[in-house]
Amino acid sequence: MDVTLISLHWVYLAFVLLIIGFMVMRRDTTAVCVVGILALGLIATQSVSQSVGGVFSGFIYAIKELIGTILVISLIVALSKVLIRTGINEVMISPVTRLIRSPALAFWVIGIVMMIISWFFWPSPAVALIGAVLLPVAIRVGLPALGVAVAMNLFGHGIALSGDFVIQGAPKLTADAAGIPVADVIQASIPLVIIMGAVTTAVAFWYMRRDMRNGSLTMDTGLKATTVPESEAAKIDSPLSPAVRKIAAVVIPLLFALDIFAMFKLDLQGGDATALIGGTALLVMIVLSLLSSRKAGLERTTTQLIDGFLFGFKVFGPVIPIAAFFYLGDSAFADIFGNTLPDGSHGIVNDLGLALAQTVPINTGVSAATLTVVGAITGLDGSGFSGISLAGSIANLFAAAIGSGIATLTALGQIAAIWVGGGTIVPWALIPAAAICGVDPFELARRNLKPVVIGLVVTTIAAMFLI
């Protein structure tokens, strides 16, 4: 499995490091990403016009990939505004408020509920369901919105997605690439998922409590200007009677519960599950707008929808350029700039990961560390899934060399790729949780970084003893 690296690979890697550096310094990366796309286009096509056009095409590609998430977030936000204006949210959250009485309890309860739902339906639909109901409860007991986003991220896009024990999409990909049964990967991943999840969430919780005590993490930390303040409910009179609000507070969660049942019964996953949640949110928003605004109901419906879309695109605006650049590391490159990579290339990111694996000495410790690094590198495209087949293939090679540990190495590469790219580190991958909580996705990524890195180090060390 030889790989040839050309100037495109090295330029792409240079810009990746540059972008990461700008993120660490808390500087905007839009201009850097645009220059990066332009540079890759010039090298690939030797044409100024094609490379300039490639910048626009890259943006279009990113928007197409993200549009489903943008739409469902926009619809959920539109619905949440109606719930706030009518006071229905107050009635909905009152029972849960009595159960969650502290920031610590809010963090762990939201995280565990998120993990359980994500096992069955994947994290994106779970974010929409949980955020709309439990975010106001958490804020009311003193947990900042950024803390809620961290909990949903780590438990959903981290623990649940990296193991994927129920739907088994991730272990199927890695197992096929490694040439072993899916059950072997799942069995090997269980202790690693537990270690990674326990270490990462515990470290994140410790950092959160420390920063809340010293005042560096407050209720306003990381909030976007587009966040809908809960106090808005007090500014708008609701024509709905208390009885109607109580009925709506029961019916709305019931409708989303029926969505969950339908997902399970009809085997709806990923985009299909998200579409069901988004469609339900839209219909509920329309009905409530018509009921609460009466004669102005039609106009109010349109206004709420516009507000939701404004929120969605304001949140995603800074993300589209960086997503456009990183999508070039995978299949988007050939779509935009043609087939200019070397024969046998698996995409820029996968080529870099494979080249790394071929340049290191092979033993138990190095094998585990390399699978973690390769998984993390392939996760930089923001999907978490595009590179896990490569992780399985490399695990096969390393296991053959050291004579054991193929399932453990495969599971380790899978976990690293999904924790980095599936929605805890790469800013555009963690957009759903950031948008629902109204926080800056880059600030959320920075807060997740240390706990995830520490978790990966501990998990890699543990894997060395399990191989």
UniProtKB/TrEMBL annotation:
Q: What are the UniProt keywords, alphabetically?
A: Membrane, Transmembrane, Transmembrane helix
- UniProt keyword annotation of Repressor present: no
* Keyword Cell inner membrane belongs to the record: no
Domain of life, per lineage = Bacteria
Transmembrane stretches in the record are 6-25, 32-60, 66-84, 105-122, 128-147, 154-173, 185-207, 247-264, 276-293, 305-328, 360-380, 387-409, 415-437, 449-466
Annotated protein name in UniProt? Uncharacterized protein
Which organism encodes this protein?
Paenibacillus oceani
